Amino acid sequence: MATPFSHPQRRPPLLRQAIKIRRRRVRDLQDPLAQTAQELEPPSHHLSPEERALLYEEALYTVLHRLGRPEPSHVREASELLQYLQEAFHMEPEEHQQMLQQVQKLEKPIFCLKATVKQAKGILGKDVSGFSDPYCLLGIEQGVGVQGGSPGSRHRQKAVVRHTIPEEQTHRTQVITQTLNPVWEETFILEFEDISNSSFHLDMWDLDTVESVRQKLGELTDLHGLRRIFKEARKDKGQDDFLGNVVVRLQDLRCREDQWYPLEPCTETYPDRGQCHLQLQLIHKRRAPAASRAQPSYTVHLHLLQQLVSHEVTRHQAGSTSWDGSLSPQAATILFLHATQKDLSDFHQSLAQWLAYSRLYQSLEFPSSCLLHPITSIEYQWIQGRLKGEQLEELTASFSKLLAYGLSLLRQFRSVFPLSVPDSPARLQSLLRVLVQMCKMKAFRELCPDSTPLPRLVTEMLRTGTVQWFHLKQQHHQPMVPGMLEAGRALLSLVQDIIGDLHQCQHTWNKIFQNTLKIDLFSMAFLELQWLVAKRVQDHMAAVAGSPVSPEMGESLFQLYVSLKQLCQLDPGPTERDGVLALDGFHRWFQPAIPSWLQKTYSVALARVQRAVQMDELVPLSELTKHSTSAVDLSTCFAQISHTARQLDWPDPEEAFMITVKFVEDTCRLALVYCSLIKARAQELSAGQKAQGQAANMQCVVVNDMEQLRLVIGKLPTQLAWEALEQRVGAVLEQGQLQNTLHAQLQGALAGLGHEIRTGVRTLAKQLEVGIAKHIQKLVGLKESVLPEDAILPLMKFLEVKLCYLNTNLVQENFSSLLTLLWTYTLTVLMEGAASQRSCPLASSRLKTALQNLEICFYAEGCGLPRAALHTNTFQALQRDLELQAASSRELIQKYFCSRIQQQAETASEELGAVTVKASYRTSEQKLRVELLSASSLLPLDSNGSSDPFVQLTLEPRHEFPELAPRETQKHKKDLHPLFDETFEFLVPAEPCQKDGACLLLTVLDHDTLGADDLEGEAFLPLRSVPGLTGPEEPGEVPQTRLPLTYPALNGDPILQLLESRKGDREAQAFVRLRRQRAKQASQHAPRPGR
């Protein structure tokens, strides 16, 4: 029986139907070579020695009988390809040379050009209708080489095929009527012997049939058609018109060509004759190797592909690299040559690639993405009828085996795709894509119609694999030595591994399965694993319940409890859950262990505190960090307690409150224990130190450590989340119980710490107080010749040195406390000094200067005590006293009159009476003019119920106006409302009138003939307010001024007392006597209540 590639029988020239291979419809295509029934190959890709030898012979034959120019990316040299084959088939050099010689002796194949005339476009219209009825004549011209690189360079001739190639080697296409763009899609096999001197020729003709003039005139469309009729009338009847030709040298062709060729003209009349689309392929017929003769081409190509791909993978593995799926240029060249020479269709090449890759993927390591291309190609070209029964069975088996293998990988994805390998997620995703694409193929649905949906299969595999992984992990953590403690540690390790796996599922794997198959791997794995964990934990806790909990067992149980909390926190929610979780309420299993946990926490913390204090040398950590190592260790210890409390986070509100109370109680107790230990440590270290400064350093570190501890304790409400706890226990505790319990504990601890800190700071302050008192005493006892500014220098230098040292060694809070104590003590010493030196202005001046400088020192430009803390009541009183004591007698007198002027301004009552005056100053005359107008409502001082008043006018203070004698008005008999209407002028410069305390003293007296005059009252008119001294130089209308009368203070004025203490100052004593006399007079006639 002849095959489609058999030689055609001889037919009449030109009119016979050409022997050809028409391109069948896709559903009719089959493998071009018959296949024999074979059993499905096992997944193994290894060949027997006999099979390997036959396949090697086939590969060598392919390389030796290569046709066509190489592709740009292919290997040109045959020696390089032969060397590659020797390596790929693991052939020894002698064996390779022997096989090569044998292949070279084999009969050459029949060389053929498989030419497919697909279509043409833009051809000439030769008929009167403007169209043509084109057909093609094609063949191989042998023995005559074409000169030049293109047909255009040779002499043009018409009907090359018809006149040059023998008729029995000429082939003809069908005639496509009335078109300028014919489509043929016809394939022909053209044999040739020598590629170097053979050329492919194609002539395109317009079929000319015999028609009557009437028929032609009916088809006439334009003037060109009419000229065509006249032209045809002059030629022979039935002569076809030449449309153009294509001539290609075979040696210029690649193995496969698919392109548009221009139709060459025979004359220059119509140079543009259109294009013809040709597919040209250089193939073999009757190949000599045994494999080609015994096996279908598809099977041989499959085996060759498997062998070369296997070599590519192993070669990369030997170089410690992974194969990326790209074939080497040598392998790609050999496979391309073999498929082309055997004339394998693209579909069968894709099928062979799929079968080879799917088998190799199950035994070799390479990217699963290599399977996507053949899957896509098969899906694109799939029609079931093109494959024979054994090929369908082989494809079905490949689907089933790859699906089963892929599911087995997914079942073990944790070990097959470990995250320790960077590209594992990408590899898993690639495998899922391959499985998804395979199951979506039309071929898979037709060949495996009863297959379970892929998502369901994968879900079941993942669930099974999760359970298997759990049991493997449980077996891996099985303790070598039996015992409850070892069993607990093994269970803890198992839970921690499960948490790590769930984290990987949540953050990495779940996204891959969700995006590819809509499978929630994380939720499924969590539900399976938490059920398995709950069963193991319950069994373990039941075994532990019968024995007391040792510290080691308590620690193991606590770690297990914390791990279970972490596991439960991964709960994805009730989206796919039926009922409650197996781990719900697991904390109740650990309730008996809580006392041991709390005791262990306190014991460990206490041991750490004791060890930290014992190792502490009481040296600051750095210039900026002024506490020692034990304070840091204590902070870490308290942080660990808070961390333990957060880890415990007991779900039951009432029990959680009691646990928190215990944590706070233990923390406060540790704080007070630390204070006792650190003080004892300081005494221990100071005992061996002779230098007093070293002991002070340690004392500074001790109070700094306590201050740091106070800050740490103050953070307990935040660290133990009291607000959240208060919200949780609000429904089970009485209102205010948390405040009364936890806050009371905290405040008690802070109060104890505050007392310890104040005691330590007071100890440091006492060391300075002695020096401060000594320097202040020396300050008072210095000679009169020493200036106050110089007298305070020793005190200031002492404070500068000491305070700078303490500021360097104390934290700011403790330094401020120290400054407060020192400031209070300094004020006390200064007050004592001021009281003892009350009568000595010089000593008081020194104390005043000292107070001013000490204020600046303790303020320290805002770095010391704030102004509000410095300006206490004591400071303000001392400042006032020293201001007076340091003043001279005249300054005191001046201050006295200032106070009386102030008293006058504040007096509104006229129960003693009042005087009315008008005063003005004329600058040009330097005269003070006073008009005493009247007095009113005077007190009756005589026995007859009346008075004899007159007014004495003096300018005070007298030392400012020594030349001006007092003036008096006329005496008025028995008149309580006298009208004086008298004017007095004082010649006085303006300057003394404008000083503080300068005033006109109006003393209203009752004239007594027999005894001393009685005092009615005093009034003070400040001179600086007199018109002319303020405002315009020449005042206009002078206003009247009404001054209520006042009495001097009956209880003694402090200024007068101070002046009285200066016994050696005559001026002071005279002033005091006068004022005392006035006060005595006032006391005799002071008004009684109810007048």
UniProtKB/TrEMBL annotation:
It is found in: Cytoplasm; Late endosome; Lysosome; Membrane. Residues 558-678 form the MHD1 domain. Residues 789-896 form the MHD2 domain. GO terms for cellular component: exocytic vesicle; late endosome; lysosome; membrane; recycling endosome. It is a peripheral membrane protein. One of its GO terms (biological process) is exocytosis. The keyword Repeat applies. One of its GO terms (molecular function) is metal ion binding. It holds the Pfam family C2. Residues 92-239, 911-1036 form the C2 domain. InterPro entries: C2_dom, C2_domain_sf, MUN_dom, Munc13_1, Munc13_dom-2, UNC-13_domain. Plays a role in cytotoxic granule exocytosis in lymphocytes. Required for both granule maturation and granule docking and priming at the immunologic synapse. Regulates assembly of recycling and late endosomal structures, leading to the formation of an endosomal exocytic compartment that fuses with perforin-containing granules at the immunologic synapse and licences them for exocytosis. Regulates Ca(2+)-dependent secretory lysosome exocytosis in mast cells. This is Protein unc-13 homolog D. The gene is UNC13D.
